[in-house]
Specification:
- There is one protein chain.
- Helices cover 48% and strands 12% of the residues.
- By secondary structure, it is an alpha/beta fold.
- It has two domains: 258 residues, Aldolase class I (TIM Barrel, Alpha-Beta Barrel); 67 residues, Non-ribosomal Peptide Synthetase Peptidyl Carrier Protein, Chain A (Orthogonal Bundle), CATH 1.10.1200.
- Strands 1, 2, 3, 4, 5, 6, 7, 8 and 9 form a nine-stranded parallel beta sheet that branches.
- 49% of the residues are buried.
- It binds flavin mononucleotide.
Amino acid sequence: MSGHMRLRLCYNSGMCSQKRKNDQELFRSFRVMLAPMAGFTDSSFRAVCRSFGADATVSEMISAKALRLGDRRSRQLMYFTEAERPFGIQLFGADPEDIAFGASYAEKNFSPDFIDINMGCPAPKITGSGAGSKLMTDSVLSGEIVAAAVSSVSVPVSCKIRAGYHETNADSFSAVLEKNGASCIYVHGRTRDRMYSPPVDLDIIRRVREAVSVPVIGNGDITSVEDALRMFRETKCGGVMVGRGSLGEPFLFSRIKAALDGLPEPEYPSLEEKLEVLMRQAEASVNEKGESLAMREMRKQAVYYFRGVNGAASLRAACVRIEKLSDLADLCGKALDAGMSSGNAPG
Ligand SMILES: Cc1cc2nc3c(=O)[nH]c(=O)nc-3n(C[C@H](O)[C@H](O)[C@H](O)COP(=O)(O)O)c2cc1C
């Protein structure tokens, strides 16, 4: 009997119920997470978000097939530091064997705290191969993918899904994922057809919460403390996941955490503090990727940090010309010399 089959039997017979409980426990401690965002949530940004209270972080999505073919860039995307733990490596793919390979490779070589499977990406490049949100149209294959991942690693496996593909089916779909061993489900409350258009459907997140007993983490359009509290209130989710709202605003995590703990809202950082965080992120990125690549990637991150800053339109425009760490430091210096202020907390 293959390893996959043995573990599936074990899950179905309840033999591993203690392991399942332990696996789920990890996700129950995640109240506010950073969402994975390809091109943005690299190691340097994840570490910054953790330092402001994000309870867990996830890698950008990584192709299990490319990994199996020995792609170097896919391996590089798995890089993380201890500061980012609890940390999950997210894989995408439509072939259970690719996913089994990728999950096992990730665990052996990088030791993440969990493996996540992307079942929500709407990009045609991904759905065209049957992966990402397209999996939500095939619950049998999706169940096999989860089972393949679960039986290949000792760490827990989570799934990130949408409300559905064309139709909203996240509740029945999640029950299949749970049955096949998923220990946590993150739900972005929009169908693939709706891409990113508001509003986010909180009702389907609540229905997923009712359909499964594993932890459910709600996602979509959280840009303020009030948005996060509403997500908790209306969906009864165990945790929330913040994506775009955290760009240039890692401070949002500490404000949400304070509200959840009944503590006073932390003061919004001064411009100097904000830009110190930006520079810290940029330096970590340079250490990881080298100055040329890191600073090209930091351009769009810097635009977000300057977003709320009063009078910074010219600085935002100048971000496209950043080549070196010293260029970014000069821009920050200009903002401070001009006496600009950090503005107010968004939301
Ligand atoms: C630029 C960008 C890249 C993204 N990359 C990923 C990804 O790699 N994996 C994933 O599961 N979701 C990805 N997402 C989706 C986000 O994780 C999240 O589900 C979505 O943005 C909704 O949350 P938000 O409204 O808080 O941003 C991405 C979203 C954006 C905007």
